[in-house]
């Protein structure tokens, strides 16, 4: 018989993917609770599937596989957070610089404020455009 302490020490625990599954479960079950009729009933079942996945990930003893799954999840989610990080940096520099997107390649370009109308050359694609700073 396995001892309780041994089972708990082998558990993987919660990571970002498990928390995402838990949030999806809660949202789907809240929708089912708010609209308990018709096709919304099946959302509750799907929500419980996400809950089961969350619990199975938490009690799993295959740490390496769960870590790889979480890395893939975070890699797919990183473009969303990368844009937020860039905006955070821009807030600190907002008084000194003005930011523009290149019309050709959408590269974000930083230009000093207060220089009037300037011709901006994109460092990535060499496109030129005129903006007021």
Walk me through what this model shows.
- This protein folds into two domains: 1-93, no CATH class; 95-133, no CATH class.
- It contains four helices and four strands.
- It has a two-stranded antiparallel ribbon. Strands 3-4 form a two-stranded antiparallel sheet.
- The termini are far apart.
- It is α+β, with helices and mostly antiparallel strands and 133 residues long.
- Helix 2 packs antiparallel against helix 3.
- 5% of the residues are buried.
- The model has no long low-confidence stretch (mean pLDDT 84).
- A hairpin with a 6-residue loop joins strand 3 and strand 4 (128-132).
How does the helix and strand content classify structurally?
alpha+beta
Mean pLDDT: 84
Radius of gyration: 24 Å
Number of strand elements? 4
Shape, per Cα inertia axes: elongated
Strand order of the largest sheet: 1-2
In total, the number of domains comes to: 2
Q: Uncertain regions: pLDDT < 50 for 5+ in a row?
A: none
What share of residues is helical? 55-70%
Count of individual helical segments? 4
Biggest sheet overview: 2 strands, antiparallel
N-to-C order of helices and strands: HHHHEEEE
